[in-house]
Amino acid sequence: MKKFSLSKKVSLLAIIMISFMACSPEDGTDGTNGTNGTNGTNGTDGTDGLNSLITTLIEQPGGNCTNGGFKIEVGIDLNDNGVLEVSEVDSSEFLCNADATGLSYLSYVSLLNQTGTNDPQSSVLENTLELNIVWTRESQGKYVGALDSTIDIGKTVIFYTTPTTHTGVRGEIVGNNQVRIELQNGINAFADDFTNLSFELREYE
Q1: Does residue 37 register a pLDDT over 80?
Q2: Same domain, 67 and 155
Q3: Any signal peptide, and if so, which residues (predicted)?
Q4: Rounded to an integer, what is the distance from CA 49 to the centroid of its chain?
Q5: Full residue range of the structural domain in which residue 68 is found
Q6: Among candidate residues 77, 36, 71, the one with its CA nearest the CA of residue 55
Q7: Is pLDDT larger for residue 28 or for residue 144?
């Protein structure tokens, strides 16, 4: 038997390893990605939710409010007719006037009516402020009242009610000779045509 020196053994082992590496196969190229699958069909739209309504009513002096005030009714418009009916009222709150003993004020009270694209017309019930208000229809459901004399904004408050044909009213004193009201019938839906909207300016002395 032939004997190999250590150096020859190392050389022989290196040759074997090189031969093995030379015979190893190379990795192939990646295949092409497959096409995406078809999107599924859209689900069915859900049903529209119901609107909530708020109604403001004048509360006469009595058991609920000694000095009178307002009754706020809240509920869901179950039949979707834009009117908060008695059967739809979920809750109510009273905003009562403070005891006015010792406080004196002058007031302008009227009932407003409006149809179509006409300007609102007012029937004055009380006018110790001795002023006149001319109403103009600015756009659908939005009206501006011009006063023929000035009021003290810091001492004047505004009161109004919500007609049964509407879901809400917003009123504000714009300046010392101008007021503004907006009527809605639904969410962000301004609407004309109302009757007997109670409007009051009260200036305290």
Answers
A1: yes
A2: no
A3: 1-24
A4: 14
A5: 52-96
A6: 71
A7: 144
Q: DSSP characters for 150-187? A: ---GGGEEEEE---TT-SEEEEEEEETTEEEEEEESST
Tokens 């022989």, located at residue: 12
Both tokens assigned to 104: 């004196």
Per-residue pLDDT tens over the stretch 131-144? 999 999 999 999 99
Q: Which residues contact 127 (CB under 8 A, 6 or more apart)?
A: 107, 108, 109
How, if at all, do strands 89-96 and 69-76 pair? antiparallel
The dihedral built from the CA positions of residue 110, 114, 119 and 121, taken in this order, carries a sign that is: negative
Asked whether 74 and 53 are in contact (CB, 8 A), the reply is yes
Identity of the residue numbered 172: E
Give which of 121, 118, 125, 115 is closest to 133, Cα–Cα. 121
The answer to whether residues 185 and 157 belong to one domain is yes
Residue 7 has pLDDT above 80, yes or no: no
For residue 143, give both structure tokens.
Answer: 């009206």
Dist. CA 201–CA 176, nearest whole Å: 12
**What would the pLDDT profile of 169-203 be if each residue is shown by its tens digit?**
888 899 999 999 999 987 778 999 999 999 999 99
- Of 147, 141, 143, 146, the residue nearest 168 (C-alpha): 141
* 90 and 156, same domain (yes or no): no
- Count of structural domains within the chain: 2
Cβ-proximal residues to 195 (8 Å cutoff; 6+ apart), any chain: 113, 163, 165
**pTM to 2 decimals?**
0.56
